[in-house]
Amino acid sequence: MTTVLVVEDEIEIARVVRDYLRNAGFEVIVVGDGGSAVASVRSAKPDLLVLDLGLPGRDGLDVAREIRRWSDTPIVMLTARGDETDRIVGLEIGADDYVVKPFSPKELVARVRAVLRRTRTAARGDEIVRAGDVEIDTAKMRVSVGGTQVDLTPPSSSSSPRSRANPAACSHARSCSTPCTAWRSSPTNARSTPT
Ligand code: CA
Q1: Cis omega (within 30 of 0) on the bond before 102?
Q2: Rounded distance from Cα 103 to ligand 1 centre (Å)
Q3: What is the pLDDT of residues 89-100, one digit of tens each?
């Protein structure tokens, strides 16, 4: 289940936000100050943070700055109307979106969903490696060249990767090719060689 940590000191707002997020299917943790927010991000590892900027003691911007040092947890800020500077600073620190108070709880839920969608898509993007026309999707184990998927089924002949990687298969061959050389110089093999 997707967990949202709500950091809000105004109990009534916290309650409304919690109820709307729960109704939308999220697991919700609510804390009322910055110190607890940082501790909860570390311990509960929420999927997203709804962070009020106006908190007693350690304010929301300070919390966001601290969390961004060691976590990419998406942050949706709750800001007071007119706090344009805070919003800009928050976005520059690394918050992902904001909602201005007073806000519609439905809009907040929609923004939470949108940010989760965006950040998850971005995270999946890390699994795709591109070089020129070649695209390697490590998650799906697919390779395409110029948009056309390449069939990577190993051939059934004796040149299958298994037989090429087998050192015994190379022991009688003078023309030991690249895969065998790679095996000979592999770290595992190097460790077993007395120096
Ligand atoms: Ca507040």
Answers
A1: yes
A2: 13
A3: 999 999 999 999
